[in-house]
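Appendix B. One record, verbatim.
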Amino acid sequence: MPAMQTNERIYDLIVVGGGPSGMMMAGRAAERGARVLLLEKNKVLGKKLKITGGGRCNVTNAEFDVRKFLDSFPESKEFLYSPFSKFSAKDTFTFFEKRQLPLVVEERKRAFPRTQKAVDIFRVMEKYVKRNGIDIKVGVRVASLEKKDGKIVSVKTTKGEEFFANNFAIATGGLAVPETGSSGDGFNILKKLGHTISQPNPNIVPLTTDEKWVQSLSGTTLSFMTIRFTQDGKTKIKKTGKILFTHFGISGPLILNSAHEVKKLLSSGHVTASIDMFPDTEENELEHRVLKLFDKNKNKLAKNIMSEILPLKLTETILALPDVNLSEKEVNSITKEERKALVKKIKNLTFEITGTLGFDKAVVADGGVVPEEVNFKNMTSVHYPNLYLLGDILNINRPSGGFSLQLCWTTGWVAGSDVGVSVYNDK
């Protein structure tokens, strides 16, 4: 039985996916005169957008030099110069501020709405797509894109509906945070059309360890330390910043942004993490500081005074480690060798990394259409000139800090502008 045709109207553009890139493209194309249909499989638009950034929405990164901004996309920046020269982080500031939503810049140049509410970013985008007469259908899951003579001609839904257009866009996102509907539908659709899909993996994601003492530190934060990831006795990755211990391992921005590199190391062997809790202090200086503390507190238990140097929970854990074992010792009974071993442990706290958490805990998952199959001048498929590929549907690795959403805003704007231009020229 042929699919039921429920709408004979031919749109200028059908966008599949009502997240940030889909809403940006739909709104921009409609703003420039295109007749647009926006399809979303959830019951509401922007489900993930409303919870991003812990509900605050890290909307972009305030690095206004495009070349410096793209240094955060080391594997794909050569592809991204063209779209980002048309719509950059600075343009994102202008976009939201023109719509009465000022942005503020915090550490690491992360930009948030001044209200600190992700839902306010969503409201701006929702208004943007609704004000130009876009047809919006929610609760609609697309099963396939139909092609003819090298072009896409229609979308078919899982309910047997079929919608027709001159242009189409896939903006269904990746696999991160699956409870928001990120199930990789777009990858499957594009694979059937002949696109090469790089295997998705959790990308910006916490790291795991089986060491119980690390897990016992859950909730403890070190605001300034250096972590090294070593393999075969050699340091492969070294970074300095903040770390959060969790019930499964380690997390925090520094760790999340190291996960992609660590995963590559894990694919070729064991990886050990080494934390220096005093990276700006030489070992002999730290030993002198500990000795001075010991001299002042000779008759006290070590565990009762080391909290002057380290967080209490960390003090208790380190002193209880088998190769330290000073938990119940008074300072006056600690030998020189034991004191030196304690200092070395503080400067070199090691444990094995076993892997990463899954898609459900990932801020961003990589994978998707390989960049070589995208025309980044207008975000179209190299196989189908009327098919646009946006945001997380692309296999582009990037760190946390606003870079993912900026990729969505940029690709959506550039693609929407391109459809708008073609519609304008047709009239």
